[in-house]
Amino acid sequence: MAECQHMRTVPVPEPAARTQGCEECLVIGQRWVHLRKCLDCGHVGCCDQSIGKHATKHARDTGHAVIRSFEPGEDWRYCYIDETTD
Fold first, then answer.
1. Helix, strand, coil percentages for the chain (3-state, nearest 5)
2. Which residues pair with 77 in a beta bridge?
3. Domain span including residue 67
4. 24-53 tens-digit pLDDT
5. Number of domains the chain is built from
6. Cα distance between residue 15 and residue 36, in whole Å
7. How many degrees, rounded to 5, is the angle at CA 83 between CA 38 and CA 85?
């Protein structure tokens, strides 16, 4: 299988300084299960096990392809376009 080009070229920004969790959930008072960080812009959203699925929604709305886990001790990444992890 070929290596995902999106993961090879994506920057790794710091998360937005304005957040202590899922940006959308914090606004509406909703809980999340796990957090994901967009590696294009630093947006922090909740995972697909969460009610809002805000990380996936952000990726669809912006075209930003790669996220990484924003959970302590986890460093895996996922590409929405190629549906691959590393």
1. 25, 20, 60
2. 68
3. 5-85
4. 999 999 999 999 999 999 999 999 999 999
5. 1
6. 10
7. 70
